[in-house]
Amino acid sequence: MTGSTNRTKRRIIGILRIVMPAVAISCIILFVPWLLVRAWIAPLPNTVQEQVEDAIEYGLDGIIVYVDQADSMPAFYSAGWKNRENKVPADPNSLFKIASISKLYIAVAVAKLVNDKRLSLDETLASYLPELAGRIENADYITLRMLVQHRSGIPNYADHPDYPWANPYNSNSEVYRLVLDMPADFKPDEKYSYSNTNYLLIGEILDKTLGYSHHQYVKQKILTPFGLNNTYSLLKEVDSDDVMSGYFVGYDEDIKLNDYIHPGGSMVASAQDVGIFLRALNDGSLLSDDEQAIYSSIYQYGYTGLLPGYQSIARYCKDIDAVVVQFVNTSGGDTWSLSEIIYNRIVKILRRSKNL
């Protein structure tokens, strides 16, 4: 019996050695996102406009691209729909929900106020918002610097299963119900972990310090001086007809009117305005030398944004001295990965044009 059992085991093992690799290969073939593979390996087009038009073939509803390259006039590209239902073509001047790119503007405001000695990066959350001491774990140890840099350990309200994405809260106070009295994700400054709650709290700190809305401060100190007349703090400040429609994979309706009012994710802007802001942030014209030093110590010089129906990427490519802003009005499924692929291919086209 023992010899027979051993032979049977060896036979089964032999069969498995043959079958399992085949099963693994079959799983790879079945579950690889071939759309992304096709977008990634496709021959690089000759022009940015061709790449933008190709993006629509992969299921994106609409796309806007703005390129500000040194020694060249700013260029605008678009394809697909501004509004799918009414067949309104994508307009490169449309307003767009820039989502977390908003955090760059708030970080700039923090740098300015720190330089003016109105804020301290080393002051604690409990000191700035004492009403939250005991309601947010480690509030006595979390500093403003940690909030700005996403090193606080405070849970991300956007990850909470009860956050109503389909019908967003219309006040910041409602969001606190998702995070107050919750355990920290980790000890303050232990590591980096992205949390929108950090910027909700920074918005509150700014408002309290200023004695008025930080939106007004951003407009006075950042938007107006640079002529950014197509940048707004909130969706309610604009005519909705000027805003690019937003779509989610598998959901037919336009979700443009879903209003996200929380600091660090609420702004609406044109691609050109975002590009002008990003250029000024990177070339030093937005901030004084002292402010720039503070900003460089706390935050990034490019960003991405994601809300239902809206994806945005805004980065400065130093090697070609170019600001590239991309807006896509489709989210869900594999569209984020697709957007990143399209963006990277556009940058490759620009580099090729510079023989880099």
What number is the mean pLDDT?
92
Q: State the end-to-end distance.
A: 71 Å
Main-sheet strand order equals 3-2-1-10-9-8
Total number of helices: 12
How would you portray this structure in words?
The structure is a single chain. The chain is α+β, with helices and mostly antiparallel strands. About 40% of the residues lie in helices and about 15% in strands. The chain is built from 12 helices and 11 strands. The protein has helices at about 1-30, 35-40, 50-55, 100-115, 125-130, 145-150, 170-175, 195-210, 215-225, 270-285, 290-300, 335-355, and strands at about 60-70, 75-85, 90, 95, 230, 245-250, 270, 305, 310-315, 320-330, 330. The chain has a 6-stranded antiparallel sheet, with helices on both faces. The chain has a 3-stranded antiparallel sheet with strand order 4-7-5. Helix 4 packs across helix 9 (about 215-225). The longest helix has 30 residues, at about 1-30. The relative contact order is 0.18. Mean pLDDT is about 90; it is low at about 20-30.
